[in-house]
Automatic annotation (TrEMBL):
InterPro entries on file: DNA_Rep/Repair_Clamp_Loader (IPR050238), P-loop_NTPase (IPR027417)
Organism: Dehalobacter restrictus (strain DSM 9455 / PER-K23)
Record bears the keyword Nucleotidyltransferase: yes
Key words of the record: DNA-directed DNA polymerase, Nucleotidyltransferase, Transferase
Protein name per UniProt: DNA-directed DNA polymerase
Gene Ontology MF term list: DNA-directed DNA polymerase activity
Presence of keyword Nucleotidyltransferase: yes
Short name of any one Pfam family annotated for the protein: DNA_pol3_delta2
Length: 281
């Protein structure tokens, strides 16, 4: 069963925190911030936690606390050697803090052996240690590991709370990770790519697809993600066949499995044209 972050901090203050957590939903940066806030609270030495002024708080805030560990994917996955390396550290005494915190960022990228090694850690938890798995998509974590964790779900920020590029946030459908990727690649570039794609479908003119290329692989992946958001809105308004969402999911998966992004977009467009394309007005 999942709980929310407010209940979690209450449990932390009462000393009733589970030792193995799974943070999912919202964006990567939002979840990391929540883990760091929790670490502050657990290690602060003052009455009013977190005070942000005691030596433990200061070290946590500067990112230099020796009892805070973070594991991220190296290239595309988190390997077993990374888990073994952290294991050695976790069974030692804490350096300075009361609690050792280990954040596994993008836990949906754990390889199977790495996930199994973590499972052992969850079954024989080291003292005074909190392990937090963080993932945008909890479905990507094997069930045996996921079922061990207390789940904490984070909803996406409201548009009014979003302080970065608002247009990118809107185009992302409220997904912080996608919004930041759009900003990285460039909002105008992504808008023009999705505009060109939709125009090709609307005019039933496959040749217009060529206007999309050349395109970097990263841009192709991003375009598919953005099209999924845009087309979903059109499906809701009855302007698109729901079938197109299934096709786009399949093509996104294919590109993830190293299928060429140009081929994937062209296949998508052909299927999309067959479905009747857009039907605006
Ligand atoms: Zn403090």
């Amino acid at each position: 069963m999942g709980i929310n972050y407010t209940l979690l901090t209450k449990a932390a203050l009462e000393g009733k925190l589970a030792h193995f957590l799974l943070f999912h939903g919202s964006g990567m940066i939002e979840r990391e911030r929540a883990v760091r806030d929790l670490a502050l609270m657990l290690n602060c030495r003052k009455e009013n936690k977190p005070c942000r002024e005691c030596p433990d708080c200061k070290k946590m805030l500067s990112g230099n606390h020796p009892d805070f560990h973070m594991i991220k994917p190296q290239k595309t996955s988190i390997g077993i050697e990374q888990i073994i390396q952290i294991q050695g550290k976790l069974y030692r005494k804490t350096y300075e803090g009361k609690f050792r915190i280990c954040l596994i960022d993008q836990a949906d990228k754990l390889t199977l052996p790495a996930a199994n090694a973590l499972l052992k850690l969850a079954e024989e938890p080291p003292d005074h240690t909190l392990i937090v798995l963080s993932a945008g998509n909890a479905e990507g974590i094997i069930n045996t590991l996921r079922s061990r964790a207390q789940e904490v779900y984070f909803s996406s920020p409201a548009e009014s709370d979003w302080l970065e590029e608002t247009d990118a946030f809107r185009l992302s459908g409220g997904d912080p990770d996608l919004a930041r990727k759009i900003q990285e690649v460039g909002l105008s570039r992504i808008k023009s790519l999705s505009g060109n794609y939709l125009e090709a479908i609307d005019k039933k003119d496959f040749l217009k697809m060529f206007a999309l290329f050349p395109m970097e692989r990263e841009e192709g992946q991003l375009l598919l993600q953005v099209l999924a958001v845009v087309l979903k809105e059109m499906v809701i308004k009855g302007q698109q066949s729901p079938q197109v969402l299934k096709e786009i999911t399949q093509m996104t998966e294919a590109v993830r499995r190293q299928v060429n992004h140009r081929l994937a977009l062209e296949v998508l467009a052909l299927k999309h044209l067959k479905l009747g394309g857009t039907d605006i007005g």
